[in-house]
Specification:
By secondary structure, the chain is of the alpha+beta class. The protein has five domains: about 100 residues, Rossmann fold, CATH 3.40.50; about 70 residues, Dna Ligase, domain 1; about 130 residues, ATP-grasp fold, B domain (D-amino Acid Aminotransferase, Chain A, domain 1), CATH 3.30.470.20; about 120 residues, ATP-grasp fold, B domain (D-amino Acid Aminotransferase, Chain A, domain 1); about 45 residues, no CATH class. Helix content is about 35%, strand content about 25%. The chain contains 17 helices and 23 strands. Strands 9, 10, 11, 12, 13, 14, 15, 20 and 22 form a nine-stranded antiparallel sheet that branches. Strands 3-2-1-4-5 form a five-stranded parallel sheet. A three-stranded antiparallel sheet has the order 7-6-8, with helices on one face. Helix 4 packs antiparallel against helix 5 and helix 12 packs antiparallel against helix 13. The two termini are about 40 Å apart. About 45% of the residues are buried.
Length: about 500
C-alpha cells in the first residue's frame, strides 16, 4: 500500500520513515524549488505538482488529488501546516476513495473555528478564557467596539477565528488601540486563511501554555498523554517545548487530560490531535484551542512515553483499536526538551535567512534526536516556513535533559545561513530557564534584558576556518601529501571541513 505525504521538509521525512518501518510505500509531492529536497529523495515515488509558491503546489487540492489518483495511493497524510487542518481537503480525499490520515472533515471544520470550538468546550464543561464568544460584527461602530471591549477588560487579544501560528492576532492594552488592532488583524487573517473573522479574548497575565496530546480510534477510545509545556514563545510562535511541565501535579495533569478527552468525545474525534490550555498564576486552566493534526512538537511526547504517534496515526487509519498498554501515558519516563531551529537571524529581529547550507554538523549522541530537512548543499527556500530542524534532548530528569540540550546546541553547526542556534545556546543556559520560571512572556522579557546585545554566533569565524581547511586539504591532496593532525583531535569545524572536502 502507498501513502501520499502531502507536505515537505522534516515532517514529510518523519512520516515516510514510519511508512517504511510499517512496510508501506511513500509518495512525495514537490514544488519547483523542492525538486532536489531531502523528502523527495527519501520517498519511494515523487511527483512534481507546480511552482514554488505554496498556493500553486502544496496548497493545491486538485494537484495533490491528481497525484493520489495516478499513484493509486491508499491514504493521504497531511502532516502539519499547509492543508492539514482544511476540512474540505479531508472531505475531498475521502470522496476520491482514499483514506485521510486524520480526523473527520466535520471535526476539522468545527474545531478549526475558534468560536465554535469554545462553544464545544463550554458544552463539555471545560472552562474557557473570557471573551466575546462570537465573531465581532464587521459593521460595529467605534463606540460600540470600545463598549464591547470594556465588558471583557484590558489587556485583551484580537484573534482570528480561523488558523493559528500567531497570524491575525493583536494585543490591545487600551481602548484607543482597539479599532486599529481589529482592522489589522482582519486584514492579516483574510490574507493568511481566507477568513477575516476575529473575536476578542481577555489576555491572561503571565500564563503558561500547556497542551495535552490525544489519540482517538474509530471505536470510541480516546487516550490522553502527559502534558507538554509550550510557553517559550515569540510572536505567539512556539520555540521550545518540553514534557512534563515543571511543577505540574498529577491532580492537575489528570484534570487537564480529562478535559481534553471530554472535548475530543464531544466532536467524535479520531486520530491524533492536541488540546491546548492556558494556565494562570493560581493554577486554573482554560481551554484555548484544539489542533486537529499532528503537532510539530510530537517528538517530545514520543520521547517520554515511548509511543510512536505517527505509526499510531497510520494504524488508526487502518482501523486498528488503540492498544490497552497506552493507558499509562500520564506517567512520563524521564524528561524531554525540544528546540525548533529556524533559518532566522536572531540578531536581526529573527528575520528569515534563506540560502544554501555550505557547512553542516548535526548534533548526536546519547539522548539526542534530530528531525531535520537540513543537508549539506541544500537550499532553504524563501517560500515556506524557515524551520530546518527539531532537536529533542531526553534525560532522566529535567536537569539531565537541559545538560544534553546544551551539548547538542554546542555541537550543532550550520554555515551559509543564519540560524537560531546561538539564541538557543543562550536561552538553555539562562538561570530562569534552569529554574523553570517559565510563562508566555519569558522570551520577550529575556530579550529585553539583553538590551540588543548580539548573540554569540560561531558560524562566521568557523566558516572562514572551514574554507581555509578545505583549500588546504585540496592542495595537500593534489601534491600527494597528507595532514599529520589526527581527525579526532582537530576542531569540530576542521573535521566538518575535511568531511565536506572528501565529499566533493
Amino acid at each position: 500500500m502507498k501513502v501520499l505525504v502531502a507536505n515537505r521538509g522534516e515532517i514529510a521525512i518523519r512520516i515516510m520513515r514510519a511508512c517504511r518501518e510499517m512496510g508501506l510505500e511513500s509518495v512525495a509531492v514537490y514544488s519547483e524549488c523542492d525538486r532536489c529536497a531531502p523528502h523527495v529523495t527519501y520517498a519511494d515515488e515523487a511527483y512534481a505538482i507546480g511552482a514554488s509558491e505554496s498556493k500553486e503546489s502544496y496548497l493545491s487540492v486538485d494537484k495533490i488529488l491528481e497525484v493520489a489518483e495516478s499513484a493509486d495511493v491508499w491514504a493521504v497524510h497531511p502532516g502539519y501546516g499547509f492543508l492539514s487542518e482544511n476540512g474540505e481537503f479531508a472531505a475531498s480525499v475521502r470522496a476520491a476513495g482514499r483514506v485521510f490520515v486524520g480526523p473527520s472533515a466535520d471535526a476539522i471544520a468545527l474545531m478549526g473555528g475558534k468560536v465554535a470550538a469554545r462553544e464545544k468546550a463550554v458544552a463539555a464543561g471545560v472552562p474557557v478564557v473570557p471573551g466575546t464568544g462570537a465573531p465581532v460584527d464587521p459593521a460595529i461602530s467605534h463606540d460600540e467596539m470600545i463598549a464591547l471591549a470594556s465588558t471583557i477588560g484590558y489587556p485583551l487579544l484580537v484573534k482570528a477565528v480561523a488558523g493559528g501560528g500567531g497570524k491575525g492576532m493583536r494585543l490591545v492594552s487600551e481602548p484607543s488601540a482597539i479599532t486599529t488592532a481589529i482592522t489589522t488583524a482582519r486584514s492579516e487573517a483574510g490574507s493568511a486563511f481566507g477568513d477575516d473573522a476575529v473575536y476578542l479574548e481577555r489576555q491572561l497575565q503571565f500564563p503558561r501554555h500547556i497542551e495535552i496530546q490525544i489519540l482517538a480510534d474509530e471505536h470510541g477510545t480516546v487516550v490522553p498523554f502527559v502534558e507538554r509545556e509550550c510557553s517559550i514563545q515569540r510572536r505567539y510562535q512556539k520555540l521550545v517545548e518540553e514534557s512534563p511541565a515543571s511543577g505540574m501535579s498529577l491532580q492537575r495533569r489528570t484534570a487537564m487530560a480529562d478535559a481534553a478527552v471530554s472535548i475530543a468525545k464531544a466532536v467524535d474525534y479520531t486520530n491524533a490531535g492536541t488540546v491546548e490550555f492556558l494556565v494562570d498564576e493560581s493554577g486554573d486552566f482554560y481551554f484555548l484551542e484544539m489542533n486537529t493534526r499532528l503537532q510539530v512538537e510530537h517528538g517530545v511526547t514520543e520521547a517520554v512515553t515511548g509511543v510512536d504517534l505517527v505509526r499510531w496515526q497510520l494504524r488508526i487509519a487502518q482501523g486498528e483499536k488503540l492498544d490497552s498498554t497506552l493507558g499509562h501515558t500520564l506517567k512520563p519516563t524521564g524528561h524531554a526538551i525540544e528546540c525548533r531551529v529556524y533559518a532566522e537571524d536572531p540578531d536581526a529581529s529573527f528575520l528569515p535567512s534563506p540560502g544554501r547550507i555550505r557547512g553542516l554538523q548535526s548534533p548526536s549522541g546519547p539522548g539526542i534526536r534530530e528531525d531535520s530537512c537540513a543537508v549539506l548543499g541544500g537550499e532553504v527556500p524563501v517560500f515556506y516556513d524557515p524551520l530546518i530542524s527539531k532537536v529533542v534532548a531526553w534525560g532522566a530528569d529535567r536537569t539531565h535533559a537541559i545538560a544534553r540540550m546544551r551539548r547538542a546546541m554546542d555541537e550543532f553547526r550550520v554555515q551559509g545561513i543564519k540560524t537560531t542556534i546561538p539564541f538557543f545556546q543562550w536561552l538553555i543556559r539562562s538561570r530562569a530557564f534552569a529554574e523553570g520560571a517559565i510563562d508566555t512572556t519569558f522570551v520577550d522579557a529575556a530579550l529585553a534584558e539583553r538590551d540588543g546585545r548580539a548573540f554569540t554566533d560561531p558560524s562566521s569565524e568557523a566558516e572562514e576556518v572551514a574554507v581555509i581547511a578545505v583549500a588546504a586539504h585540496a592542495f595537500l591532496e593534489s601534491v600527494g601529501g597528507e595532514t599529520t593532525e589526527p581527525l579526532e583531535t582537530s576542531s569540530p569545524w576542521r573535521r566538518a571541513a575535511r568531511a565536506a572536502a572528501l565529499r566533493t
